[in-house]
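TL;DR need structure tokens for one chain.
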Amino acid sequence: MRSILLTSNEDIINGLRLAGVRSVKCNDRAELLKNFRTFTKTEDIGIIILTYSSFKEIKDEVLEFKLTGDLPLVVTIPDLDGDMEDDFILKYVRESVGVKAVGD
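>> reply
TL;DR here they are.
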């Protein structure tokens, strides 16, 4: 099983290439979504890595795929600025399970 990175960030592509991760540069939402759908159906891909900015562009499609429980595993990494939502994991779990906390 191989991993694939989908992002528009050239620096992250170069960094993960040094670790042996194959990458596809996606310049817009349509290209990102097309590649995401293609690689979710590719049998030898075990992990799809998305930068947070890429994830935000196709968030609904990614969450819908994650709920199927199928492979490949889809993971999100921070962009170079390190920004991600503070409660990203908690928010993801709430959306996945359909639970709303008091104050949401």
